[in-house]
Design goal:
The chain is mainly beta. The protein is built from three helices and 21 strands. Helices cover 10% and strands 37% of the residues. The protein is globular and about 40 Å long.
Length: 267
């Protein structure tokens, strides 16, 4: 079974990466593109939803969808597994204010692929060194190579995906492929979750993510692709705001953002 899982992970790596050197993800030095220079395009208008959450309606080129931005000091992010093996993300979100998107890729039996950690507890599969991962610890986030995960023993949340769409502000060479997209941008104390409602080329959404706000982009320095296509789905409920992306099937887990509980003295 482990051999089959490794073979599937290798097949996914080959399918999603343009030119993986020695099984690793592309780096900015190979076929990379700098983020587009500033132009006359309007700066994206983020809307505050209250309780630390902001929303941006995406409408650029072929990209349509939703982006949500928040600080980890105000909003808790969890990786919530489906207890029955697979579920829609709306089923994994609690009542009240919550933003949920799909997360892990999964194998032919529906099991999450790659390391998954929630609140310091393993909730996913085994680490895949050739993939990358979102790591959250002490209200700070980053995207790292899978092979480096052993160094993050105090991680509170880990989810793996591929490829990296933006690496230190640079868009690497990406394999042409149109699909619905679920993406996470890790910016230290701040995170951005993205779910598209349209099928988009990897390079197009990567350029939008990396472009400076003055160019109409999101200004993401580091962005990781999560499972997409029919897996892409969104459940958003926040102080009266509501949005949904249905997706095509159940998924093994979801990234779920909720308001962080505060001591009474801070409320």
């Amino acid at each position: 079974m482990r051999d089959a899982a490794l073979a599937l992970a290798a097949a996914l790596t080959s399918t999603l990466l343009a030119a993986p050197p020695s099984g690793a993800e592309p780096t900015p030095s190979t076929g990379a593109q700098a983020a587009p220079a500033a132009s006359a395009r309007a700066t994206p208008a983020w809307e505050s939803l209250g309780d630390g959450m902001e929303h941006l309606a995406l409408a650029s080129g072929a990209v349509r969808g939703h982006a949500f931005r928040f600080a980890l000091a105000d909003v808790e992010l969890r990786l919530v597994p489906a207890s029955g093996g697979a579920a829609r993300v709306g089923e994994l979100a609690p009542a009240g204010n919550a933003i949920a998107v799909n997360a892990s890729f999964f194998d032919r039996d529906g099991r999450a692929m790659g390391l998954g950690i929630d609140r310091g507890r393993a909730v996913g599969g085994a680490r895949i060194d050739a993939w990358s991962a979102l790591v959250v610890a002490q209200e700070s986030s980053r995207i790292v190579r899978g092979a480096a995960l052993a160094r993050y023993t105090s991680a509170e949340l880990v989810v793996q995906g591929l490829p990296r769409f933006v690496i230190q502000g640079v868009v690497p060479k990406l394999k042409p492929q149109r699909a619905n997209r679920t993406v996470v941008c890790a910016e230290g104390a701040r995170l951005v979750l993205v779910a598209t409602t349209t099928r988009v080329e990897a390079a197009e959404i990567a350029r939008l993510l990396a472009a400076a706000p003055a160019s109409g982009g999101l200004g993401c320095r580091n962005a990781l692709n999560l499972d997409g296509g029919p897996s892409t789905q969104l459940h958003a409920r926040w102080n009266g705001f509501a949005a949904d992306v249905a997706g095509g099937w159940g998924v093994p887990n979801a990234l779920v953002a909720t308001p962080r509980a505060r001591p009474p003295a801070e409320r």
